[in-house]
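Intended use. Records like the one below are meant for learning the mapping from a protein sequence to its folded structure. Do not use them to infer anything beyond what is encoded.
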Amino acid sequence: MHITAQTYSKLKPLHHEDSLKTKLFSLTHAPHRPISSGRAGSIIRQVLATVLIFALFFAIMNWGAITQIVTWEYQKITQNTDTINPLYTLVEKAEVKQQPLPLTRTTAESKKVIPAITMRVAPPDTRLVIPRINRNVPVINVSTESIIKKDWAKLERDMQEALRFGVIHYPGTARPGQQGNVVITGHSSYFPWDPGRFKDVFAVLHDLKKGDQILLYNNQKRYIYEVTTLTKVWPSELDVLKPSTENKLTLITCTPVGTNLKRLIVEAKLLRVES
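Structure written out for the chain above:
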């Protein structure tokens, strides 16, 4: 079949420039089609479903900490949370004069006449007691070997392992009884499948107030601190770990609960040491 020049011109492809012009024209002159109400509703439902799933997942992952926070907030509404647990009271009782026990005929009578004992009993291990939020937890020491070798990966593993058994004394910082900055860190929330018992020990640490007292027991001595500041810093701000000429205690945990976005820093000055 003979193809004329006119027919050939109809069959040949458009040049690249012509093709772009055609596409741009079609895009710029396309009729506006508003989103239908049905489509908008579908998008809203998808967004709400995504938010709900995320909220449910977050609640499951941080169930222990969330339960503590809700319980604490409920107690603040229904009870006087300014009343410190008498188990941790720092008010010294008047000394009771000891007297010989009177003679009794039966064991039952003997139990009724046992006098009060004024002896203070200190825990044998290192412990942190925070009366405001009713916390009494062991303080675990981590070896400084990883810091000396600058093996930061091993240091992180050692700290995570130690956090299963309490809060940890940050290696390299002052120890109780030494001059300087005693740094203790603990979880505010952690993976629910982790076998540790202290995954959310600092869940309500943010509720401490300036003037609250904190007790640190070490070597049968009681170190009493008073809270001076509560601040939030970025994880990269490491000044809180620096040595200090003052005798103070620094508590660190992640905030907001369930994230590691920032660090909550509680600083307290040493008031006195009791044997």
